[in-house]
Amino acid sequence: SEKLVEIRNLQTHYFTEDGVVKAVDGVDLYINRGETLGVVGESGCGKSVTSLSIMRLIPNPPGKIVGGEILFEGEDLLKKSEAEMRKIRGNEISMIFQEPMTSLNPVYTIGDQIAEAIELHQGLSHKEAIEKAIEMLRLVGIPLPEQRVKEYPHQLSGGMRQRVMIAMALSCNPKLLIADEPTTALDVTIQAQILELMKKLKKELGMAIMLITHDLGVVAEMCERVVVMYAGKVVEEADAVALFQNPLHPYTEGLLKSIPRLDQEVEKLHVIEGAVPNPLNLPEGCRFHPRCPVATDRCRAEQPTLQQVAPGRKVACFLAEERLMKGVTA
Ligand code: SF4
Ligand code: MG
C-alpha cells in the first residue's frame, strides 16, 4: 500500500551543557495510509522525539533536527515554513499525548477548545463549529454532548478528558494521528475502552495512526506493523504478527518476554537486565551489547546497520539471519 509518511535518516539532536544528545540518530521508517504503526521502546529511546520531529515541535534550543527528510505525501516537512506547518498541524496531522490535562486549557470550555481548532482549519462560524464539536463528542462516546461542551476540563474524568482530546484531534479529519502513550495514565478498564474507541474510529475515518508505546500488549491489540527503537535507532521493523511469532532482535525478544501473561507466574517474568545507555556516553559497537545475552566480540567493536532480512522485515543485528533461520521464539 501507499506510503503516507516516509522518514529517511532523521537526526534530531539536543545540545546540552554536558554535550550533544543524539536523541534520534539516523531513523528510517514509514507509515502506510490507513495503517496503525506501533513505535516501541523504553523511555529515552527516541520514539517521542521522532514524533515531535514529524510535527516540527522540537523545542529549539536545546533541540534541533540536524539531518534527514520527513516526507508527508511526498513533500518534505523539514522544508516547510512555520506558517505552512501551522496549516498541517491539527489538520493533516494531529497528536494526542499521555496526560490530556496538560494539553487542555483549564480556563476554556470543552466546546470552545474543540471549536477553536475547527474554526481555524475549516473556516466555519463559531456556532457551526460548536455543532461540529457536539457531533465529535458524540462520535467519541461522550454522553450528553450538548451539556458537556459547556463544561471545563476539570469537570471530566481522566478517561473522558482523553476522549475529548481524541475528539479534538480528529475534528479536522487528519490523515495521520500520532498517539504518544495515549492510555498510559489511565486505569486498565478505561485504557481498554480508549484503545477500542481508537480502533473503531480508525476504521470509520480511515486515518493512519502512529502509536507510540512502551507496552507491547497495546501493540498486539492495535497495530499492523511495528518499529522497535533502541538508543536513538530503529533496531527492528516487522509486521506485528511476524514480530510476535519470531522476534529477531535480542532486544525485541527481551521486550516480548517482559509482557506479563496470565499463564505465567509473576516471579518468572523476564525483565531485560541492565539500563538504557547514557545518551552522552553510548557504548561502542552495537548499542545493545552491554545488555545482550548473545553478544559476541564483533558486537563490541562494530555497529550493525538496519538490514532487510525478509519482505517487510528489517533488523539491526549481526545474528538476525541466523535467528531468522532458526526461528527464535519468545
Ligand atoms: Fe546482540 Fe550483537 Fe545483535 Fe547487538 S548485534 S543485538 S549485541 S547479537
Ligand atoms: Mg515518551
UniProtKB/TrEMBL annotation:
Q: How does it sit in the membrane?
A: Peripheral membrane protein
Q: Can you say where in the cell this protein is located?
A: Cell membrane
Q: What residues does the ABC transporter domain cover?
A: 5-256
Signal peptide positions on this chain: none
Any one GO MF term held by the record is: ATP hydrolysis activity
- Any single biological process term in GO: peptide transport
Question: Where's it mainly located?
Answer: membrane
Instruction: Name one cellular component (GO) term.
Output: plasma membrane
Output the Pfam families linked to this UniProt entry. Answer: ABC_tran, oligo_HPY
Alphabetized, the UniProt keywords read: ATP-binding, Cell membrane, Membrane, Nucleotide-binding, Transport
Under the heading PANTHER family, the entry gives: DIPEPTIDE TRANSPORT ATP-BINDING PROTEIN DPPD, OLIGOPEPTIDE TRANSPORT ATP-BINDING PROTEIN APPD
- Please give the NCBIfam families that the UniProt record associates with this protein: oligo_HPY
Family under the similarity heading = Belongs to the ABC transporter superfamily.
Any idea what this protein is called? Oligopeptide ABC transporter ATP-binding protein
Q: What organism does the record attribute this protein to?
A: Symbiobacterium thermophilum (strain DSM 24528 / JCM 14929 / IAM 14863 / T)
Taxonomic lineage from the root: Bacteria, Bacillati, Bacillota, Clostridia, Eubacteriales
